Description:
By secondary structure, the protein is an alpha/beta fold. It has a single domain (4-277), classed as Rossmann fold (3-Layer(aba) Sandwich), CATH 3.40.50. It has helices at 41-45, 70-83, 96-107, 128-146, 148-159, 162-170, 182-190, 196-206, 235-244, 260-263, 265-277; strands spanning 4-8, 11-18, 23-27, 49-53, 89-94, 112-118, 222-227, 248-253. The radius of gyration is 17 Å and the shape is globular.
Amino acid sequence: MEPKFALVNGINICYEIYGDGEPVLLVHGFGSKKESWIAQTQPLAEYFKVIRFDNRGAGKSDRPETPYTMEVFADDINGLLDFLKIEKTHIIGWSLGGMIVQNMVLKYPHRVNKMVLINTNYGTPDESGAELYKNMRLDSLKLMKEDPNKAFWQSIRTGYHIKFRKQMEAEPNKKWYGLWSVDDLIKNNVTDPPTENDIIMQAKAVATHHTFDRLNEIKNKTLLITATHDRIMPQSIMKEMHEKIPDSILKVIDKAGHDSPLSRAPEINNMIIEFLKN
């Protein structure tokens, strides 16, 4: 699909639209881009109008030098909805995307219908979390420049359960669920990759994410999806979020890691579709 661009808050945001029906906006994670939703886009587009986009500092969107904060990311989404003339949308965020979505719904609750948060958190009391994410991504970025294949296989240690990792290693050319392959993921990694500065800017935004004391203000119906073996965003955090968000449902994906939307795509897609349709 030919990417489109929206002028939002003085920068160009790259976006794509698939399918028809109620709008569903997909918000990607740290150091990632819209193509990270490779396993959700088409399945969801059978039921909804799916909009996926690159955050500022990612993919084909502009990468301004001005400071990134959660409020800035939320304002970008609000501006994108204005550009697309969408008054209200379902919204799904994964990892950093889930952090952005929380800030979006707290600032612009009238723009959001239902909300789905996947493998995310409510922030940390200091900047240690942001520093950890930054260092992980910088190390991965350095290795990716040297050897994209090696970088991918090293990265899956934190993204996938060991059983699934062994299956991937045994069948590296397999098209998983007919949706994605290892080659697809590696190609996505090396196309429009983040720069070191992009990673640093995104980490500074993560350091501004503190929603724990305001989660009880969220009135939107919310689906939280967590994974038992997510070492980046532990399920214990999302259980706390479930307790704080009044109208929320918590689903736990067993024997899966941070990249469960890929490794357990059919299961997660069905959860999302059922939640949004009902």
